[in-house]
Amino acid sequence: MSSNNASADSLSLLLFTLRSGKLMAINLLKVSEIIPCPPLTKMPESHPHVKGIAVLRGLSLSVIDLSRAIGEQPLLDPDGGCLIVTDVSRSKQGLHVQAVSKIVHCLTTDIRPPPYGSGKRSYITGVTQVDGALVQILDIEKVIHGIAPTRVDTSPEMLSREDAKLLANARILVVDDSQVALQQSVITLRNLGVHCHTARSAKEAIDRLLELQGTPQQINVVVSDIEMSEMDGYAFTRTVRDTPDFAHLYVLLHTSLNSTMNTQKAHTAGANAVLTKFSSPELTQCLIQAARTVAQQGY
């Protein structure tokens, strides 16, 4: 493996604890800063999992009581601990945690899917081992969605005749290990009158591509998450590009990370485009562009 590939497959995790002391982690790219828990202003009409509002350099920041949000016991010192300030899916929020442990570096191949039977109530996207200890990786998107769900317009999208015709010829596979994010994309596609196939991992996506190859439903557009256990979106894109039957596929990488940070990395991996979650209108425009490119190439 080249050094570029090794770099693309590495991941930095910020480890932290809640009251139980078990190690949890969040992708460091989703963290903008870590601060002691500041004074909070209570908001009477806010969600019960929101502790209050902090003022950070003149800007208001919602602070999530992470323990309550994921069903854990409350912190022993409700005013202590620290805030992990996250920048995810176009918004910033503070996560109130017991303590931050350290930053570790690992390969995405070292991250495994959540244990079988974790269920829909689970707030982890994967697990890994650090110094012999099990670390659970937080599904921050699910936490945020549970407090402030992203609104996805369920009314049919008005398209020009040309765009509707282009999309009718797009055979799309959506790949995302987050059920919430997957559903958002599927709803957007449904509103466009487009049927799509789905996969919950890169490996499942490869199986689906192989299964549909040579059939009338053969995929020509892939919309893939970047952060996935075992094989991330970059590695998945490189695999697609290295496979002759799939090298022509249009690949849109759809990420909760700030896309400006990932554009170069995405293009280096072979992606056609990258988009930050979640905006139905922007996803629609990206899909129309994908369908136009596919039509021009005769796929």
TrEMBL record:
Ranges for domain CheW-like: 10-149
A Pfam family matched in the record: Response_reg
Positions carrying 4-aspartylphosphate: D225
Keyword Thylakoid: no
Matching PANTHER family: CHEMOTAXIS PROTEIN CHEV, CHEMOTAXIS SIGNAL TRANSDUCTION SYSTEM RESPONSE REGULATOR CHEV
PROSITE patterns reported for this sequence: CHEW, RESPONSE_REGULATORY
Keywords in alphabetical order: Phosphoprotein
Keyword hit for Phosphoprotein: yes
Domain Response regulatory: 171-292
GO process terms (BP): chemotaxis; phosphorelay signal transduction system
Protein name: Response regulator
